Amino acid sequence: MHRYAGSLRGALALGFVIVFARQASATTLAVTGILSAATSSNNTLLIVLLVVGATALCGLVLYADYVRSNKIEAFARSLGVPFRRKPTGSDNALPIGCSLENKGRNHIIANVLEALHTDELVLTLFDYQYTVGFGRQSQNYNQTIARMQAPLLKLPYFNLYPETIFAKMGKVFGASDINFSDAPEFSDNYILRGGDEAALRAIFTPALRQFLEPLQHLSIEGADDVLFLYRWQRRTKPRDLAAAIEQNKRLLALLFEGQQSMGQSPG
User: Fold this and answer.
1) What is the distance between the alpha carbons of residues 154 and 226, in angstroms, rounded to a whole number?
2) What is the mean pLDDT of residues 231-238?
3) DSSP H or E segment with residue 219
4) What is the pLDDT of residue 138?
5) What pTM does this model have?
6) Measured between alpha carbons, how far is 130 from 108 in angstroms, rounded to an integer?
7) Tens-digit pLDDT profile for residues 104-138
8) CA–CA separation, 214 and 24 (whole Å)
9) In 80-190, which ranges are continuous DSSP H helix?
10) Residue 138: which of 166, 105, 109 has the closest Cα?
């Protein structure tokens, strides 16, 4: 009994590797690992069950991604805007400037949606995946990133992200955070960092802070005329894309207003 339990635990762990595998080669390696582990226990039935289960799980994940792409494509078609399941050469540059670009390895861009492309604003949404760790300890992180580029923006570099328990620990050890005494809820919800504190205090007006307060899990990175918005390890559901686009445009408008207030006394 203990021998079978141990084999099952090890096999299930390897099975999860297969669930998150996105490429055929990775899936093949994972299945090979399962077969090796099961063979060592001389349990033929376990081999069959694990291979069938792993294949089914992998198929479900790939099918879910296929359905997701179809729904985003249908949404793009309803707007009459370009959509690409796989990135072009220029699409590969979309994450440049975002901190997620430097995390992990095996970076994958998919489902590129050009929501808006005018002289005043280019708004592109895309799914972004990267892998951390190796072997059984590896994990894939998936999120949807919105990239906005507006020539009229002239932002100082800043990074805004949720104030999690780990962020609070960083503050204990001296990590910086720009707080607003007149907006305690905003300051409790977010960590705001950047090189030009005076400019950021002017840009993050009361209206912008009030807009951001109820939003959950949101990270924003900005510099010069480019903004990145994402919720770490969360992909935007296709049915929520329209609302997300409008929310991004509203945020941009508030940043414009804040930028115009630079040079005035912070509120």
Assistant:
1) 9
2) 97
3) strand 218-224
4) 94
5) 0.78
6) 6
7) 999 999 999 999 999 999 999 999 999 999 998 99
8) 41
9) 165-172, 184-189
10) 105
Q: Which two tokens stand for residue 205?
A: 């007006």
Residue type, 226: V
What 3-state DSSP class applies to 52?
helix
The CA-to-CA distance between both ends of the chain, in Å, stands at: 68
Q: Which two tokens stand for residue 38?
A: 């099961």
Taking the C-alpha atoms of residue 150 and residue 259, their distance in angstroms, rounded to an integer, is 13
The angle at the Cα of 1, spanning 32 to 44, to the nearest 5 degrees, equals 35
CB atoms within 10 A of CB 147: 21
Structure tokens at 234: 């969360």
Residue 70: count other Cβ atoms within 10 Å of its Cβ: 12
Selection from 47, 255, 234 nearest residue 143 by Cα: 234
The token duo for 77 is: 């078609």
Q: What is the pLDDT of residue 12?
A: 38
What is each CA distance from 79 to 2, 87, 115, 145, in whole angstroms? Answer: 58, 20, 8, 19
Helices (H), 21-138: 24-39, 44-79
SS3 178: coil
Each residue's pLDDT tens digit, 129-154: 999 999 989 999 999 999 999 999 99
Query: CB-based contacts of 66: which residues, under 8 Å, 6+ apart?
Result: none
Cα separation, 35 vs 16, whole angstroms: 14
Amino acid at 122: V
